Amino acid sequence: MSSSSSRNAFEDGKYKTNLLTLDSSSRCRKITPSSRASPSPPKQLLVATPVEEGEYPVVMLLHGYLLYNSFYSQLMLHVSSHGFILIAPQLYSIAGPDTMDEIKSTAEIMDWLSVGLNHFLPPQVTPNLSKFVLSGHSRGGKTAFAVALKKFGYSSDLKISTLIGIDPVDGTGKGKQTPPPVLTYEPNSFDLDKIPMLVIGSGLGETARNPLFPPCAPPGVNHREFFRECQGPAWHFVAKDYGHLDMLDDDTRGIRGKSSYCLCKNGEERRPMRRFVGGIVVSFLKAYLEGDDRELVKIKDGCHEGVPVEIQEFEVIM
User: Fold this and answer.
1) 223 in active site
2) Whose CB has fewer CB within 10 Å in the chain, the N or C terminal residue?
3) Please, which residues bridge with residue 314 across strands?
4) Signal peptide position in this chain (predicted)?
């Protein structure tokens, strides 16, 4: 996939990218004596990677409830084009309310990355796991925070450099959290040893599409409460007039893909929200992984001309 040389984080970056699918029967692409015994990933993985020679930070993206990792391919390619390797595991096909299996699987995949990922990437591409980012959308955002907090019996030795919640959700309402509950309702209770955190919210997420369905990001268990419990440094952006699933691909197929247009209150189109999420993520990672905060500061100060949506709310804890 070709990408422009634009430095605007909300547009494609300078790197050409490719999308790979790794499953439990995937074979190593880099054939070396050590790679012949390299284990396959614990779960099927969708990987967006630059194709040019280099070493790149690694971002794991956990999908939302009953969604497919393939629904995030356009967002993944956008972020990858700015010099990142994106990895989206398919954590499950069917799941109940309990997220313990997702927490366990995420920790297992994180452990696998250090021994297996390098062997499945193009030979000229090297993952830099000293700059590892854990992120998730919706229920996947809750799972990401749960893994980072290391409170639920499953954790990884891989150090998390930054943590990102994309419209994270912990249940259907306050007092109705899905097990295990992550939110404590205590301000600044997420003690993560100064890991920089980014929380992105959708302005329409709290609004029900119709009386038959609850809001997709209900008050009391959504992005606002997650940010409220963050310690600094932490950033919070909310996109006005866009919904909980508006960062997904334009064309999400199958029954689950079609239902993603029907269950949540949505904006007029997905591209602006997807570009917003991608651009905020890129700007945040450039600031905290590479020391280049120019775009993030412009967004904060309201003088970035490329922001594709209206920012409804902004907060920062330093």
Assistant:
1) no
2) C
3) 237
4) none
